[in-house]
Design brief:
Mean pLDDT: 92
Strand order of the largest sheet: 10-11-12-9-8-13-14
CATH class of the largest domain: Alpha Beta
CATH architecture of the largest domain: 3-Layer(aba) Sandwich
Number of strands: 17
Helix content: 25-40%
CATH topology of the largest domain: Aldehyde Dehydrogenase, Chain A, domain 1
Structural class: alpha/beta
CATH superfamily of the largest domain: Aldehyde Dehydrogenase, Chain A, domain 1
Number of helices: 15
Shape: globular
Low-confidence stretches: none
Strand content: 15-25%
Number of domains: 2
Amino acid sequence: MSSLTILAPVGGDLNMINHRAEGFRCFDPEVLSFIEALSTALLKDSEAKSFPELVALGFWLRKSNLKKLHEFAPTGIVKPLGWVLHFTPANVDTMFIYSWICSLLMGNHNVVRVATKSTELRGCLLGIINRLFAQPAFVRLGQYNLFIHYDKQSEYSKILSSKADARVIWGGDESVNAIRQLPCQPRCRDISFADRYSAAVINGDQLTRENVPKLAQLLWQDTQPHGQLACSSPRLIYWLGDRALQLELFQQVNCLATQNEQTINSLNDHLVTSQLLKSTGEAAEPIIQSAVGVIPVSCFDEHWLDWHLGGGYFLLMQIDTLEDIAATSNAKLQTLSYWGLEQQSLVKFAQQPSIQGIDRIVPVGQALDFSPVWDGYNLFDQLSRLNVIG
């Protein structure tokens, strides 16, 4: 069997999962103190400041935001589940922290299997977590929160699954199904986050030259982190109404993208994707083929996303009404970000029984903002149990 490496804490012991030690309370003061220290470290560490994703994580972990998160927590006599096993996604370096924090806040002990690919961002993040676990105030917390790595083909997923009280599974459909087939305890809960995609809808009738720069900045804010590979980053843009400023908007997004070396290096990927899309007969010539790519399409096929390699590439579809989104989407559509639309019309739209997907509708610029309610799950509810006294 291939080897297993404990990435954090230093000197951590995998045998701890065999012990049913007393868990922490929901929003335990010891946990809150650790999270506050983690937030401070992320916002002050010189290396962490070079990664926008870690800065965003640091803000999300601030005490003021934790108070808002508490509103999502169940009420009554709330108990942790026990040991929670997290399988993390390879495309988003920081995603494992968000689900881990939600589980931690519910008082659970955790084993987090991080993805195979090692990155500077992940190294920085785990380095900070290791330094915190080494502090006397957080040693006990570190004993029951292990970050590990092992080869995907090893037997460790099977071994750990047999001991878990819950599994949080991030990944593609095939990976999720493979893990769910591993034997587990009869009452083990599986919380699965499989393949999803996201879109944005822009109302061109509300677009002016004065607000084009702001919208471009917000759209790029949802696109640039994680190379547009996050499930909530928009890859498809629905365009309502006037198209007079459409090209100018994407030109300004392109200007922002030219400041990002990773996006510039994606030009060849954009060219290949454009050629594949045009071969379907449903795509026109790209209106921009530079640091970002924008290609008009007459319809949408979810299989086209298999050709999408990120890096700032958008499928652009003209629609007449919001109902056209319902007609062209499916259950895999996760987040719909919007600009220039009244919230009341979006509420009416979202209530349609015919809509299978769209778990989140948020303003453009907030697509990547994580919430305990994700993919239609309330993670706090899923990662805890309620005692009822009658």
